[in-house]
Design goal:
- The chain is built from 14 helices and six strands.
- Strand 3 and strand 4 form a beta hairpin.
- Helix 1 crosses helix 14, helix 7 packs antiparallel against helix 8 and helix 8 runs antiparallel to helix 9.
- By secondary structure, it is α/β, with parallel strands linked by helices.
- It folds into three domains: 92 residues, no CATH class; 197 residues, Nucleotidyltransferase, domain 5; 109 residues, no CATH class.
- Strands 1, 2, 3, 4, 5 and 6 form a six-stranded mixed beta sheet that branches.
Length: 452
Amino acid sequence: MSTRMEGIEQRSLFYGTTLSMDVIVAENNRYRILAETLPWKELGEVANAYRAKRVNLHNGRPLNLRLHLGALIAQSMNGWTDRETEDMVAHHAGVRCLCALEYSRETIDHTSIEVFRNQLTDKGVEAINQIVVKAAEKAGFTGAGLCSSDTTAQESPIAYPTEVGHMRNIANQLVGIGKKIKKNLSKTLDGMAQEVQRIFTTIRLFTRGKGEEALAKKKKLSEGLQSVVARMRRFIQDGVRDFSGKGCERYQEALDFYGLMLSQIRQWMKTGFHPAGKIVSLWERQARAITRNKAAKAVEFGRRWIITRLEKGYVIGTPCQKLGSDADTGIISEVLEHFARMMGRLPKMVVYDRGGDGPKNHEVLAEEKILDAIFRKGEESLVGLGRNQVLKARRERALSEAAIATIKHSRYGFNRPRAKSSEGCVTKGQAAILGANLTHFARDWAMALASG
């Protein structure tokens, strides 16, 4: 076979120049489709409404709203980091079309992407998702007749929580506070911190195994570690009382939080049982241990979400009002409240797994005159439904699990999101749902355009 060598034996045509080139963005390119079909005016109005709650929109350098919305949309569809998104906006022809930069050399900085996302908050991203779902409904791609819901856990991006690890991290935080409020506290705190590190290292290296001797030694060392950390906290507390500088309230709030965690650890050491609502992270304070009773993972650490699949695969979701594990036997009222807020009306049919089989749920659906397709526990799983309704309920129930698996894919980043705050985790969760819906929306429009 012969070989064409042009381009191999010559330098790039761009070498030493500022030439530009033409790139074809096909009609079925998903970014071009979104650029032409999304209701950008509505998206911009919602974005500015939420930004106005955080910043004064009339001060500072004007923000290119379409550029930032396009970057947010492209990022949510691909799970890119902020720096990857910056690079894609600068060099990806389809993404530049989405951001309305076809005839511009303007680009975006990764810090601007983060600032814009933080200004929107999770509520703003959810409102953008609502507009996308409404646009899909208007185009006939989905509808509000079906509500197929389930709860799932959004795992927090935290290390596996252990009491020993928590106490060491608390000690490190206390040292930082002590150095800020009073310089002469440093020497005493450093000595305590070294004792904490020594006990921590001993526990990790010399108490391995599940034998009685190892467990007894670990328990004794853990009690000693808890005692040292509690003493550090009391020592810092005395310093904060005498401190009148900036940040005093913040330091006191942190000390109260560490005191709560230490009391929970002390209760576990005495009783062997964790208290209800136990805190599992110093920074992700809304994360809880969620019992799943599954073969792969008995417990997940994060927050529970309600995920609802609409007709033809579109998804809406929201964090559960209660943190931590809870039964789904009374959750339907919460599901319907969120559904009505997002879709503007109640569904005609509700599908839920056996976890939702509770008298309260059935009563709520009966009062609202909604078709009850909650799977029952027992021989007859779906009571009072016709054959076609039973088949539809079973199909939608299976597809609900598929929808949850989709948003949990690494492409969308629902699980263990790249975030360093509780609010950031919820925002990334909403962005994952938005990304899945946008991908679905672009695919539906591509099929519609192809079919004429």
